[in-house]
Amino acid sequence: LSVEKLSYALSWMSDVDNVTGGQSRDLVLQPAWDYLHQNHHDLLRSPLFPVVLSVSTYFFLVGLYTVLDLLAPAWPCINRYRLHPDRPVTWPNIWTTLGVTIYNHLLYIFPAAVAQWLWRPPTPLPREAPTLWSFFLGILGCMVVFDFQYYLWHLLHHRVPWLYRTFHAMHHQYNQPFSLVTQYLSGWELFSVGFWATIDPILLQCHCLTTWGFMVFNVYVSTEDHCGYDFPWAMHNLVPFGLWGGTPKHDAHHQRPGTNFAPFFSHWDWLGGTHTVPTPSSFNQLHNTIKGVSQKLHPVLSFI
């Protein structure tokens, strides 16, 4: 497949040449883009901007979920949405995962950001905003490509014992994840995920605004998958027909590591025979069963 044919095949989700002489121009995003262009031009062109955007989005979301984790034991209105309401997130859990997260940012992300700032040219900012259609279609395209890449990577690191033991086992130290487990990762895994999230919009020739939208959405989905909550507005409750993975399915992956490898959609797990759908009620039922048995055994054990 030649470069020209590949470029043409990807042009349907690209913002290049999607406007012909201004005819039928989609102006929905143009006012916002004009404002950003005029008032934050230097910031947006900086090679550091995508890094700052991703990192700030991640810590904002993690901070929000961590506050919910700390409030949940005393606030039934929050705790009722947790997949494991009887297993609260503790301060030792928070400090351990936060420490690894900060370590990874200082050892890997900060040097990579400095290198990008020194050697990567400023981001070109086109005058035209992407059409609303190409904006969402570009994000969807990046999601589909990333989903396939990570499914294969994830499956491989579970099926090859050396890869799992060396790189991925760290992430599975918590079988009931919470938001800070999102980046409780080895450096190799953090690099792999960041590499694909950076490269995929380039491969699909996305507008820079589309690229930033995908980066923010990718961080949002990653933290939501690990948050441990089944909110009504979560993505898996909004996308119909069970097409989306979401928090319960990724929680099931940490319970049963041989299932649910895809980060976004469910089709690769369906096709690969690795799909499973436990419900929050099944977790609660299992916990209540164990609790009931322990209560029955307690008088006997006390007598002994």
Automatic annotation (TrEMBL):
PANTHER family: STEROL DESATURASE. It is found in: Membrane. GO terms for molecular function: iron ion binding; oxidoreductase activity. It comes from the Eukaryota. Keywords: Membrane, Transmembrane, Transmembrane helix. GO terms for biological process: lipid biosynthetic process. InterPro entries: Fatty_acid_hydroxylase, Sterol_Desaturase_Related. The chain crosses the membrane at residues 48-72, 93-119, 131-153. Signal peptide: none annotated. One of its GO terms (cellular component) is membrane. This is Cholesterol 25-hydroxylase like 2.
